[in-house]
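Morning F.,

Quick status update on the modeling queue. The single chain you submitted on Monday has been processed. Sequence for confirmation:
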Amino acid sequence: MADENTILTKIPDELTLQIAALLRNGLGGQPTTTNSENLSLGIKLEGDNYALWATLMKKAIGGRGRSSHITGEPSPPSKDDTAFAKWEQDDQCVFTWLIQNIDASLVNNVSQYPTAKTLWDGLAVTYGSETDSLHVFDLHKRANSLRQGGDTLEDCWNKLQKIWMTIDRRDPNPMKYAEDIQIYNNKVQEQRLYQLLTTIDDKLEPIKRDILKKDPLPSVEAAYAMIRREVARLNILKPSTTEINRPI
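Structure tokens below.
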């Protein structure tokens, strides 16, 4: 099992960009508070966003000089040491910060840990594991069952992208040689193309068929661009309400 540092070093470029965006925008418009008893990142751990959350959380705790309570270095003082009472108070504070930044639906599963370090390690094992087969299965299930419904095309694309990014992080390409890596990536692209076409509205069946007739099949990004152009064309050609109601 990879340790927490190994997990964090594998954050993909997309997550790095998300971190930069959050920092530019003041952590989602909710800057870290100055009250020593409270700390808000502006985002909460929801499971899929562990890598981003852990990176920001580690920086926020480190910024308040409490990194040792999640890294374990240096080791805490013994219980008979006069410094233990102060260490325990600080540890409870860090524990509270962690809980404050975890989604309410997950709190009951993690609140039983005795120290901030054991809580931090438990979160890394539960949500940072790259070999969590059940979670990977759930992600694939969500991608396959996603439907546009009342969402915009862009909303659907963003939801799929988020799921795919998490799958890539938790279930990376297992191939060793360049040719095999490319073959695997091509199959993944094909699968994601089918997921995109399944997700979007049935009213776009004509453009779906056009995409599937292409040989070779386009990448999922190219297919999305084609669909966007078609949606834009249909919106331009759509008659206005005035035209619809105009008497013949």
